[in-house]
Amino acid sequence: MDQQVIDQKLESLRRCLLRIESKQPFDAHQLSDDFDLQDIISLNLTRAVQMAVDIGAHIAASQNRPGPATMGETFEQLSQMGVITAVLATQLKKSVGFRNIAVHNYSAINWQVVHAIIAGHLQDFTDFAQAVMRWQSSNTQGEQPQA
Question: Which of 32-36, 122-126, 136-140 shows the lowest mean pLDDT across its residues?
């Protein structure tokens, strides 16, 4: 496993989350009315989802796991490997749905839902990063990788 690649992606994820937190709107109405804020939030939330998927795919590949068929399956695979919990996998799979709407059908974004995501689920990405770091640490201290 190339720990440096994962570390770089974790740092990118951290920057995305900090950017969202620094611009987090007071309420959904503010987000609905501010196009610049929408761009900042949606871009960084989309990037955060993509970073998490990329990290997951890298971990799976390092353990000789087959590539997942969908982005959401990446998180299921990480759960099966013991990297993240099943509950966190479910939450992160939901974030892929937002990412797909943001990338493929931006005009359909419900900004009240986005506000709810950033108000209540940014912690999922922090939990993900912490779980990955714990997994990295246990796999660099001599434990055998899972097959």
Answer: 136-140
Give the Cα separation of 129 and 41 in Å (integer).
19
Q: Amino acid letter at 4?
A: Q
By annotation, the residues acting in catalysis are 99, 104
Number of domains in the chain: 1
Alpha helices in 24-121 (DSSP H): 28-33, 35-62, 71-80, 86-104, 111-120
pTM value is 0.87
21: domain CATH number? 1.20.120.580
Q: Domain range for residue 36?
A: 3-139
CB contact at 8 A, 58 and 5? yes
